[in-house]
Design brief:
Low-confidence stretches: 1-18, 197-201, 204-210
Number of helices: 7
Distance between the termini: 91 Å
Length: 212
C-alpha cells in the first residue's frame, strides 16, 4: 500500500512538471506601440479643450486569462493563453495614445474639466458564427457639474485567420485601436459641443461678468 502511494505521488509530480506552461500575449496594437514611445515623438499640438480620464475598468471576468465565446450566453477561459496585462490596462494605454494623436482634446488632471469613465465589457475571442476578436467598451463623459455629455458603447471586431493564438492577439490589436480611436473622436465631438462659458473656470466667468 505504501509503495502504491509513493508511485502515485511520483506520477502526480511528473504530470505537474510536464503540464503546459501559460503563454502570455499582448495585442498587436499601433496605439499600444505608440504609448511606449516618448511623449515628444507622438504628442499632438495642445488643444484648448481638455478632459481627464477618471477611470478605465473592466468586467470582473476580464482578467489575465483570454476569454473565448461561442454564443451570447456561453463563454469560458483558456488556461494556457493569457494577457500580459489586464484588458482594462490595454484600453487605458491605447486611449491615451489616441487622444495624443487626435489633437482635438488634450488630457489633463484638472478636476474642473470633463471626466471620462470607460467600462470595458468585452475583450473576447469569438469562435462562431465567425472567428473574430471583439473589443467593446462603454464611455461616459460628464462635466465638472455632473452633467452627462456623452454615454454610448463602442465596439469593433477583427477577423482571426487561423487557430494560432498569436493571430488572435494581432486581430485583438486592431479591434482595440478601433475602439480607442472611436472613443477619442466621440469625446472630441462632445467637448466641442459644450458652450465656452460652460468650459470656463469660475474666475474666468467672473472676469466676463457671467458670475456675480
Amino acid at each position: 500500500m505504501r509503495s502504491a502511494v509513493v508511485v502515485l505521488a511520483l506520477t502526480a509530480g511528473c504530470l505537474a512538471r510536464n503540464a503546459a506552461e501559460p503563454r502570455f500575449f499582448r495585442p498587436d496594437s499601433v496605439l499600444l506601440r505608440e504609448s511606449t514611445e516618448s511623449a515628444d515623438s507622438v504628442a499632438a499640438p495642445r488643444s484648448t479643450r481638455a478632459v481627464r480620464i477618471r477611470a478605465v475598468v473592466g468586467e470582473s471576468f476580464l482578467r489575465e486569462r483570454v476569454v473565448w465565446r461561442s454564443s451570447p450566453v456561453e463563454y469560458g477561459f483558456y488556461e494556457q493563453r493569457r494577457w500580459h496585462e489586464l484588458p482594462a490596462s490595454y484600453v487605458d494605454q491605447a486611449l491615451r495614445a489616441a487622444f495624443r494623436k487626435t489633437a482635438r482634446v488634450r488630457l489633463s488632471d484638472d478636476v474642473r474639466v470633463p471626466a471620462l469613465h470607460v467600462a470595458v465589457t468585452a475583450f473576447d475571442e469569438v469562435l462562431v458564427p465567425a472567428h473574430v476578436a471583439v473589443a467593446q467598451a462603454t464611455a461616459s463623459l460628464r462635466d465638472a457639474h455632473g452633467q452627462l455629455l456623452l454615454e454610448r458603447p463602442f465596439a469593433a471586431e477583427m477577423p482571426i485567420a487561423g487557430d494560432d493564438p498569436a493571430t488572435m492577439a494581432r486581430a485583438m490589436g486592431g479591434a482595440l485601436d478601433a475602439v480607442a480611436t472611436g472613443i477619442a473622436e466621440a469625446v472630441g465631438d462632445a467637448v466641442a459641443d459644450v458652450a465656452p462659458e460652460k468650459r470656463a473656470t469660475p474666475r474666468a466667468r467672473r472676469a466676463h461678468g457671467t458670475l456675480p
